[in-house]
Amino acid sequence: MSSNQQNRIYLSPPHMSGNEQKYINEAFETNWIAPLGPNVDAFERELAAYVGAKGAAAVSSGTAAIHLALRLLNVQQGDKVFCSSLTFIASANPILYQGAEPVFIDSEPDTWNMSPLALERAMEAAKREGKLPKAVVVVNLYGQSAKMDEILAICDHYQVPVVEDAAESLGSTYKGKKSGTFGKFGIYSFNGNKIITTSGGGMLVSDDVEALQKARFLATQARDPAPHYQHSQMGYNYRMSNIVAGIGRAQLEVLDERVRARRAIFDRYVQALGEIDGIHFMPELEGTMSNRWLTTLTIDQQALGVTPMDIINALAEENIEARPVWKPLHLQPVFDGVTYYPHQEGWSVSDELFANGICLPSGSSMTIEEQNRVIDVFVKTIKR
Ligand SMILES: *Cc1c(COP(=O)(O)O)cnc(C)c1O
User: Fold this and answer.
1) CA 354–ligand 1 middle distance (angstroms)
2) Between 84 and which of 23, 30, 37, 139 could a Cys-Cys bridge form, CB atoms 3.0 to 4.6 Å apart?
3) How far is the CA of 143 from the centre of ligand 1 (A)?
């Protein structure tokens, strides 16, 4: 068998616990095959308890959770919403769903997340124009929390609510408190590539249980309490199915194990590659614990004589999936012309991270042998 026919190593494949089938079977036996039922209620309770939020609403995706959060914050046509630039587009698409205008905020080097400096400048400018944003969407990239104290202080000062996009940071902590519980709303994703998965799904969390009740209402076509079907507002079909929620319950039971496994994978990469000049792993801010959803690093292309794509392509030849860091949203064609605030005038941190960053396979089920395959190809490529 030639090397490229070896088992494919994915970036972040699903990792089932074995207990999922039990909850799915319960759903079948009781015929709760619907976007409601005991697993949905239990998954909401269990996730809220895990992260320490007063409540949670289970929905069909993380994107749907962000959309509901913006809707609950009354984001409307023509409003501004600030959003991290270095993220997956799902953080910002719901801003467009509401007909609002995104304004993108750069990263800072310590967390790769929203720069408080850029945020402050953006707020000052918005205040001068007499039009503050209706919300700020703060992303915790690859598991690392943003500088929440600084960001919340700015947002509190201007009285702008925060939506914490914790799609990638479930299980992470910031000063001992679980990621996703810092804003008015937090959101999680259970897409197939996340640290735990339900195949697809999301969760909206908040301490405002009334708002969550409203979210459930909006997520079920905004159906008024009447025996006939009556609707006085526009709603969505965003609720999570009871089968999917069953998968989530079993996945939540092993979340802490998954965090430990991902962190161990990160540590092994650092052991193998950390001494090489020109390789810089994504930092972990003091006082925070990252779930290390993906191990990411930047390379000094001059020092190593290769580009990130050289390494990614070399890995692909060996049937290994690696990727560049997210392409910042202010560089995306769909957001052409959108206002952007770099970390400092003339210094865009997210542009640099995109140009030099690589995400390595980080699945919690990856074996040491598989990880050694990744490391071997990486080392051979930079020594060519
Ligand atoms: C995955 C992800 C989402 C969206 O989640 P879906 O469940 O796929 O809709 C949102 N934000 C970030 C940062 C993500 O990585």
Assistant:
1) 18
2) 139
3) 12
